[in-house]
Amino acid sequence: MSDAVLVDTPIPGVRRITLNRPEKRNALNHAVRGGVLDALQEADGDPEVRVSIIRGAGPCFSAGYELGDGNEGTEPPYFTAEGEGYWPRHVTDAWMGIWDLAKPVIAQVHGWCLAGGSELATGCDLVYVAEDARIGYPAVRFGVPDMQFHAWFLGPRAAMDMVLTGDWISGEDAVRLGWANRSYREDRLDDEVLAVAERIAMVPPDIAQLNKRTVHRAMEVMGLRTAIRAGTELCALAIHQPSFQEFIQGTGGGDLTEALQRRDEPFGDYRAGD
Question: Is CATH 3.40.50.720 the classification given to domain 5-240?
Answer without folding.
Answer: no
